Amino acid sequence: MPSSHESKKQELPPTAWAVLGLLSFPGERTGYELKKWADSSLRFFYWSPAISQIYAELRRLEELGHAASVRSGPEETRAKRRYAITDAGREALAGWAADTDEAGPPVLKHGLLLRIWLGHLAEPERLRAMVGEHLERTRGELAAVREAMEHAGGVPDWNFPTLALRWSERQHLAELALAEALLGDLDELARTPREPGRQSGGDAPTPG
Known about the structure:
Elements: H1 4-11, H2 14-23, H3 31-39, H4 51-64, E1 67-71, E2 81-85, H5 87-97, H6 111-117, H7 124-152, H8 159-191
Antiparallel strand pairs: 1-2
Helix pairs in contact: 2-4, 3-4, 7-8
């Protein structure tokens, strides 16, 4: 029979663990500050939850006793609620982070490749333009990753986030190489004459 701790752990979605993970670093933070931090770290290798998701998970974490909050005093012009992880929350997070069974495989949802897959319905030049736009966007993301790495560099509390950002830098470099290779593949396909009258037999082009 599972313990109450295990039951709580199983109930939490990945978003909750991500928000609790943001709270696991020193200091207290508002929901807005957590969103900014997620945008400059988590989104490069996982995803950045919406601000509404962050506040929803903060409420859930407080109900479970994994987080606690304090409201700012009258000295601030606008009242703010700051959140911090509790000892129980840190213990639960450490248990979840050490549980390799829950890591799961990476999930790839590549919007550009979905359009390439449907390239028989598009003009070749439009496909090339989409790949070019993807290259520019990826270069911008790579620059943002490197900026985040520079900001985190030399701060002992951020050593492991820096490792994740370093992985993301390599991933973006690989994405650039893949996109450049895709341009070459499109060029080669454009040079390949299509045999007149040849059509597929109606089956899927891959086995299964």
